[in-house]
């Protein structure tokens, strides 16, 4: 994943804003932060919407991709974050659990 972000930086490739950290409405569900961005997201009992600084390491089908808490709101911030990351970019995908 780090090599991809470095390539994007070096080639000055535009990215989707969801890859960059921003304050977003999320709920914690099954250990993941799921963004609440439209009426399709039905809250489960006890869930509370919170504004957190999050970004997405991977994008997938709604609402199967979880966000990660992050302050990386630039490409260099993402690269710095990746240099110390200890988890896979696929960690936030609900469909990857057995």
From TrEMBL:
InterPro entries cross-referenced by the UniProt entry: PAPS_reduct_dom, Sulfate_adenylyltrnsfr_sub2
Ranges for domain Phosphoadenosine phosphosulphate reductase: 2-66
One Gene Ontology term of the molecular function aspect: sulfate adenylyltransferase (ATP) activity
Protein EC: 2.7.7.4
Pfam families for this protein: PAPS_reduct (PF01507)
Keywords: Nucleotidyltransferase, Transferase
PANTHER family: SULFATE ADENYLYLTRANSFERASE SUBUNIT 2 (PTHR43196)
Protein name: Sulfate adenylyltransferase small subunit
């Amino acid at each position: 994943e780090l090599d991809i972000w470095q390539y994007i930086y070096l080639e000055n490739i535009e990215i989707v804003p969801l890859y960059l950290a921003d304050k977003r409405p999320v709920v914690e569900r099954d250990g993941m932060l799921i963004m609440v961005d439209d009426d399709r997201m039905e809250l489960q009992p006890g869930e509370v919407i919170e504004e957190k600084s999050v970004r997405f390491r991977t994008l997938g089908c709604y609402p199967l991709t979880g966000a990660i808490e992050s302050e990386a709101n630039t490409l260099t911030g993402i690269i710095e974050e990746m240099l110390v990351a200890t988890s896979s970019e696929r960690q936030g995908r609900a469909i990857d659990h057995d």
